[in-house]
């Protein structure tokens, strides 16, 4: 990068505060040269999205406001620019793509129409020219059957396709700056890799500068020219990617890098007890299809003859992309769904066909931890109420359940006075600890953790993984750990089972499956892990 | 989409049958002789005998029901006791004023309330929002007749712009029709305007927080396009539901407005029929209004499917 060149975007000492005056950004400065990729990295709440939204004047009205600083785009001051001027720049010279492709497109307008709108409002092309240009944009993002996609509604398209639509919409007028706010966070790894490659390709073709916001150090290692690390509304460190990732100067950056789980599988643990606590035999689940006029259309097979077993104190990882059937398997294990065929034996007893009443004594043996701790705890019940409800349903008296709850909170590393508080008074990581305590309160033999750390920041994620590992050693509980993140699976699991379209493609020890994958699909998954070539732990040590 | 429509229409049939059964039982299960109830206090023994004959009261109940249903399907809604004319033709005569009133009032509601609601949501928390919301509280807390007499006093008695009362059919010319319907329609619409404006605001506020609204703004669209093309289309379903049920309410119960403005509509027919215990007319009106409700709900459901491509049942 030629550093003498004038920066395309220069943000100086930007300060943003809430309407009540609480500061969100304390004087943030960064710049982007034409054609380069700057990664804005930070954990949730670091202010990285706020900084990007402020650039286009898109801060939520009445909630956040700019208090000071300057933003200069191609020599033009953006703070204080008229609404009309900002409107003319948006979508035209500066475009944005967002995190959640499922909700970022309007569900009631066809995607062609939504791209067409950009052309309508920034150009004077006639309808035929606009259509040709839109189709060209769709072709450039490598969508198949573009004539059909032009008229399709967003709900008909996959997450990856929708993100391609967003990119086509953002790049149709060849902007000089693309702001990408966590554009691949909600996508599967293989889709993520395709989208990153696509952004790279279009960037090179059109010379677009990219401001890429992410929390994923792997993605940073793959795409960044320069990196800017943010923490609590401040820029902690910035510099060339190799320098920030290789020789970080600040303790916070080192801490972030150290928290990235390594992709190499953990050292195998000696098998302890030989008692099989969970034995799943040819489990299948077919969801019935939607009703037509007189008959049902054929159903969807979400799990097809899945078999595995788990001994006491071990962890099995079920990995796969969205739609692979891993959550369906989890729900069948919990008997939240009744499987269409096969057996689920929990400590020897088949629970797959038990009635609701017959199931009750077995429910406590297998407990679940969910993905989003913000939604899995009832906001109107105190922590104590959440923790004692299960044991009391099984006949333990209130006083004893409360002492047990207190012990559990200590076990998961929370203060004992947490009992009287409510979920909103805790951070995401603390809430997940509470959810773990709730599962443990039943003294189960098996815990099913469905993407239990996916919603957490890396540093919090590392702590929760450590907690799970320690609890397992102490209590000997077996864990079924469902995840899409191969790094997490490598760190926690003894055995790994890879699923694709409802079928098991590979099953074996973590060292076999992740260390030397046999199936091409597993190989593809491993190859798509962002930043796989980068050794984060080495950088953190330096 | 077609299969969905067919299923919805078919699903309306059992609903109507249950309504018919209820209307039928209303008379049979009331204490006393149905013939005496229908015939009223002044009926002669010969008349009662004729009524019994007509209703087939000597036959089993379910047979009576099917006979009655058969008569309904042939358009025989029996005869009014007060007017001694067919119930169907009586309702037919009164339908036009009520329908005109309801349609004009609904149109007024949509034209006034939706933009007001959009404006209030767009400028949430501003004086504009507060004004619209306080006026709308006023709109549905003031009784209809007060609004009616208030409007009459102002526009008819003080300003002499509009007539005090009366109704002219639209077939006698649009001018005279509009001249006479303006005040009653505005009166009737006032509460609905208030309700729909609030509904629009609430529904739009939900949608304005969505990601695709941010996308639309990031594209550089103007506020009008963002509000109407992107936000309102997504907020439309609950608003439509309120407008639709409002319309159905207007068909069945506009007694006060009709009385204030002396319009010969269905509201007054049903009040007269209830006061005179004119059972055949009451039965006919119940059947008609439930039919209207079922039809409106059908239309609303279908318009959901048209306005939101994701809805498929």
UniProtKB/TrEMBL annotation, chain A:
It is a peripheral membrane protein. The keyword NADP does not apply. It is found in: Cell inner membrane. InterPro entries: AAA+_ATPase, ABC_Ni/Peptide_Import, ABC_transporter-like_ATP-bd, ABC_transporter-like_CS, Oligopep_ABC_C, P-loop_NTPase. Its main location: membrane. Belongs to the ABC transporter superfamily. This is ABC-type dipeptide transporter. It comes from Pseudomonas typographi.
From TrEMBL, chain B:
The chain crosses the membrane at residues 99-122, 134-157, 177-197, 235-261, 281-300. It is a multi-pass membrane protein. It comes from the Bacteria. It holds the Pfam family BPD_transp_1_N. Signal peptide: none annotated. Keywords: Cell membrane, Membrane, Transmembrane, Transmembrane helix, Transport. Residues 95-304 form the ABC transmembrane type-1 domain. It is found in: Cell membrane. PANTHER family: DIPEPTIDE TRANSPORT SYSTEM PERMEASE PROTEIN DPPB-RELATED, PEPTIDE ABC TRANSPORTER PERMEASE PROTEIN. Belongs to the binding-protein-dependent transport system permease family. This is ABC transporter permease. It comes from Pseudomonas typographi.
């Amino acid at each position: 990068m030629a550093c003498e060149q004038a920066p395309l975007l220069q943000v100086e000492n930007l300060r943003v505060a809430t309407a009540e005056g609480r500061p969100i950004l304390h004087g943030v400065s960064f710049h982007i040269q034409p054609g380069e990729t700057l990664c804005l990295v930070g954990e949730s709440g670091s202010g990285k999205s706020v900084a990007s939204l402020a650039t286009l004047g898109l801060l939520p009205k009445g909630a956040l406001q700019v208090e000071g600083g300057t933003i200069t785009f191609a020599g033009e001051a953006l703070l204080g620019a008229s609404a009309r001027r900002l409107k003319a720049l948006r979508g035209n010279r500066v475009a944005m793509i967002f995190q959640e492709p499922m909700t970022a497109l309007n569900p009631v307008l066809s995607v062609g129409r939504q791209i067409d709108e950009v052309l309508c409002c920034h150009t004077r092309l006639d309808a035929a020219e606009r259509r040709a240009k839109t189709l060209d944009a769709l072709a450039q993002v490598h969508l198949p059957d573009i004539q059909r996609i032009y008229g399709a509604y967003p709900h008909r398209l996959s997450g990856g396709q929708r993100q391609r639509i967003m990119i086509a919409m953002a790049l149709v007028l060849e902007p000089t700056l693309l702001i990408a706010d966590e554009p691949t966070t909600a996508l599967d790894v293989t889709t993520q890799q395709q989208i990153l490659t696509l952004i790279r390709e279009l960037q090179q073709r059109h010379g677009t500068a990219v401001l890429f916001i992410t929390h994923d150090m792997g993605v940073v290692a793959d795409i960044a020219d320069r990196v800017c690390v943010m923490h609590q509304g401040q820029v902690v460190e910035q510099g060339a990617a190799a320098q920030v990732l290789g020789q970080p100067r600040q303790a916070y950056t080192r801490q972030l890098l150290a928290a990235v789980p390594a992709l190499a599988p953990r050292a195998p643990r000696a098998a302890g007890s030989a008692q099989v606590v969970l034995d799943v035999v040819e489990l299948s689940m077919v969801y019935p299809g939607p009703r037509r006029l007189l008959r049902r259309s054929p159903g969807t097979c979400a799990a097809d003859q899945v078999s595995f077993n788990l001994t006491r104190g071990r962890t099995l990882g079920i990995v796969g992309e969205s739609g692979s059937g891993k959550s369906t398997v989890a729900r069948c294990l919990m008997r939240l769904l009744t499987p269409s065929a096969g057996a689920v034996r929990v400590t020897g007893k088949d629970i797959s066909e038990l009635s609701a009443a017959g199931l009750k004594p077995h429910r406590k043996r297998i407990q679940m931890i969910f993905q989003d701790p913000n939604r899995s705890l009832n906001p109107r019940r105190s922590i104590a109420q959440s923790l004692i409800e299960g044991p009391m349903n099984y006949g333990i008296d209130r006083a004893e359940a409360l002492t047990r709850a207190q012990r559990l909170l200590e076990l998961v590393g929370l203060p004992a006075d947490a009992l009287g508080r409510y979920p909103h008074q805790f951070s995401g990581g603390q809430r997940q600890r509470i959810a773990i305590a709730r599962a443990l309160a039943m003294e189960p033999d098996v815990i099913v953790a469905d993407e239990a750390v996916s919603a957490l920041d890396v540093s919090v994620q590392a702590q929760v993984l450590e907690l799970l590992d320690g609890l397992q050693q102490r209590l000997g509980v077996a864990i079924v750990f469902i995840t899409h993140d191969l790094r997490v699976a490598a760190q926690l699991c003894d055995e790994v089972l890879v699923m694709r379209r409802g079928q098991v493609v590979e099953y074996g020890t973590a060292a076999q499956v992740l260390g030397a994958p046999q199936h091409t699909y597993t190989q593809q998954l491993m190859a798509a892990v962002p930043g796989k070539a980068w050794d984060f732990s080495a950088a953190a040590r330096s | 989409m077609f299969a969905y429509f067919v299923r919805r229409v078919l699903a309306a049939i059992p609903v109507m049958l249950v309504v018919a059964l209820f209307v039928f039982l209303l008379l049979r299960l009331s204490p006393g002789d149905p013939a005496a109830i229908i015939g009223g206090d002044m009926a002669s023994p010969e008349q009662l005998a004729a009524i019994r004959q007509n209703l087939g009261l000597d036959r089993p109940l379910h047979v009576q029901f099917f006979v009655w249903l058969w008569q309904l399907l042939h358009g025989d809604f029996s005869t009014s006791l007060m007017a001694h004319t067919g119930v169907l033709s009586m309702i037919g005569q009164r339908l036009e004023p009520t329908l005109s009133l309801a349609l004009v009032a609904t149109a007024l509601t949509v034209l006034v309330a939706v933009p007001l609601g959009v404006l209030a949501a767009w400028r949430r928390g501003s004086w504009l929002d507060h004004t619209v919301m306080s006026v709308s509280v006023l709109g549905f807390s003031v009784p209809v007749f007060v609004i009616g007499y208030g409007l009459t006093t102002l526009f008819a008695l003080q300003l002499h712009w509009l007539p005090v009362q009366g109704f002219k059919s639209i077939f006698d010319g649009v001018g005279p029709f509009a001249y006479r319907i303006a005040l009653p329609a505005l009166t009737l619409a006032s509460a609905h305007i208030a309700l729909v404006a609030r509904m629009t605001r609430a529904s739009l506020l939900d949608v304005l927080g969505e990601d695709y609204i941010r996308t639309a703004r990031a594209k550089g669209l103007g506020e009008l396009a963002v509000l109407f093309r992107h936000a309102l289309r997504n907020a439309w379903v609950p608003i439509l539901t309120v407008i639709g049920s409002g319309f159905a309410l207007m068909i069945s119960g506009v007694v006060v407005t009709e009385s204030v403005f002396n319009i010969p509509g269905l509201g007054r027919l049903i009040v007269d029929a209830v006061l005179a215990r004119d059972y055949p007319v009451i039965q006919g009106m119940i059947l008609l209004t439930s039919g209207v409700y079922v039809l409106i709900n059908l239309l609303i459901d279908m318009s959901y499917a048209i306005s939101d491509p994701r809805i498929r049942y």
